[in-house]
Write a structure and sequence with these properties.
There is one protein chain. With 441 residues, the protein is an alpha/beta fold. 34% of the residues lie in helices and 27% in strands. The protein contains 15 helices and 20 strands. Helix 3 packs antiparallel against helix 7. It binds flavin-adenine dinucleotide. The site of flavin-adenine dinucleotide has 35 residues, from helix 1, strand 3, strand 11, helix 14 and helix 15.
Amino acid sequence: MHLDTDIVILGAGLSGLAAAEALSAAGERVILLEKERLAGGLARTVAYKEHKFDLGGHRLYFEDAALAARVEKLLEPEPLLRLRRRSSNYVGGRLLSYPPTLLNGLLYAGPALLKRLRGPGLKPPEGSLKDWLHSRFGSGIHDAYFKDYTLKVWGLPTESISSVWAERRIGPLSLKNLFLEMLSIKSASKENTLDFLYPRGGIGGLCSALQKNLPAGALLTGAAPLEFGTGGGKIDSVLFEQDGKKRRIACRQVISTIPLTELAPLFKDDPGPASSARGIKYRSLIVLFASMKRKAPLRDHWVYFPEKEVFFSRACELSNWSPALAGPGGALPITFEVFCDEGDSTWRMKDEDLLRETERSLRAMKIFGGFETAEFTAVRLSHAYPLLYSGFEGPLEDLKSALAGYRNLELCGRTGAHAYLDMEECLHNAGAAAARVLAKK
Ligand SMILES: Cc1cc2nc3c(=O)[nH]c(=O)nc-3n(C[C@H](O)[C@H](O)[C@H](O)COP(=O)(O)OP(=O)(O)OC[C@H]3O[C@@H](n4cnc5c(N)ncnc54)[C@H](O)[C@@H]3O)c2cc1C
């Protein structure tokens, strides 16, 4: 059976769902193809036995008050919790507040501040994350807070990560603003925002609310796109497979929110995109959920673990995020984030081995005291982060130019546009893609 629609959207994460909601509200016929059995992508909340957990800590923060109000309305009647951020870095056997407290800030950024007060400014920013941090804060902040953590999360040293990532993640943070943040006077960067919002039942509430607004039949899950039909510089159909059956959808427009490395091979008659996509890289993530019997929860919402001896990079204490994530009782739920590359030795570890390595690190650290794991499971995310290595812009531009030959294709969202976007930016990005599609009508 052939299908016919106005717009095919590839991927039903936050961006795909938001674009679909906007377009169907405008009267367009939309079909979303999602290869997983459930929608939500990176921003979903996993239900496991009696537990619920997000795929890594996800907090909502908005610069756009109108969008915040719209999200609040969308989630009704579920309340949005307003939480004051508590997070730390575990270094040298101690938990250091992150963003840095005034004392830590003076210790690590003080020399750079003195140097700046005394004489000519520091070097202007350059191409890598290391240069970017050195030029703004000196080596102290780089060494204490970024050097080891970057290597663990990205698998690359700060010299090999593009300063574009620093601009995205750390933003317009100057030495002066850093000290204002340390005094809790002002949050200059969005990343270091002091308060955040959180849907009571988990971050997945946002995607579920968007999904509920879609017309019946608009979302096809377990549906993998196989190839595009093309002609005259346009995509005119999408062949996909669901439950072992292949079907083709004729369409006017395509919005892609899937990884560029999955999009490019869909052009079977045009090797250009697939060959340009070779320089596009991602970092993968394993989220290990464990319900652990222990005396008390950690103080923080999340803790970073930059030291290489510690198996995981970040832990989220779920009961601090919402009582709805606190689990059935008797044990405290927690997630551990382990970064790796798809297919490497960590990626291939059995869940039991992931737990064993995690427990070994916890015993060595002793911040947990005694513990006993009651239940655990692991979720693997192959395309968790677009990898913004130094020089990624060239291959990305090449691929975008190859794709620009298809006039009715829009790239959208964090994964689809290969940009380090947070959830607010994904919502904006999806709205803009939907508006462009409507304008082309
Ligand atoms: C660990 C972690 C923590 C984060 N914390 C925060 C935070 O605190 N605050 C914040 O604002 N943002 C946070 N983010 C970012 C946030 O998760 C993303 O901005 C957002 O979820 C991206 O949505 P998306 O739809 O663009 O991409 P995705 O969620 O990646 O959606 C893409 C969808 O496409 C599907 N797909 C993939 N390949 C195919 C294919 N071949 N065919 C069909 N479908 C396919 C996927 O299954 C997925 O559903 C975090 C991200 C991570 C990984």
